[in-house]
Amino acid sequence: MTMTAMETVRLDVVEAAGMTAAACLFHGFSDPSRLSIVRHLALGEHRVIDLTAHLGLAQSTVSQHLACLRDCGLVSSRPVGRASMWSLNHIDTVMDLLASAEKLLGLTGDAVALCPRYGVDALHEEAR
Which residues form the HTH arsR-type domain (predicted)? Predict the structure, then answer.
């Protein structure tokens, strides 16, 4: 059975939407500070003040990154007195993803870090 032109277009749109969502997910993990926060939250719940102390980041930086991760559905918070306790959602799946990323980085060696578009030098250039 062959697909009609309209069915092919619909399939292309669905695939494009899925790729866009995947790119957005990976963008959520693209900042080293956000990755550090995710890894720390994998150890358990933390307050913003705990994360700032552990990671050496400014409170405003941690709060902005937590807001990004929350908007992506990766973290959530619950009130405890005047503070909020932040936790990682879908912890097993997130940790599986990060473990797979580490495995892939091991296989590619320095290629990712040396990439002229997204490697270490490109990150430093972007920060300027």
Answer: 14-109
Residue 72 to residues 45, 85, 88, Cα–Cα distance (Å): 18, 18, 11
Q: What's the half-sphere exposure (Cβ side, CA atoms, 13 Å) at 56?
A: 1
Model-level pTM? Answer: 0.77
| CA gap 51, 61 in Å, rounded | 10
- Paired strand residues for 84: 79
Same domain? 54 vs 104: no
Parent domain of 25: 1-30
Q: Give CA–CA dist 88/40, Å, rounded.
A: 9
Residue with the bigger pLDDT between 34 and 115: it is 34
The Cα–Cα gap between 75 and 83 comes to 16
Positive or negative: CA dihedral 29, 30, 36, 39: positive
- What pLDDT shows up at residue 105? 86
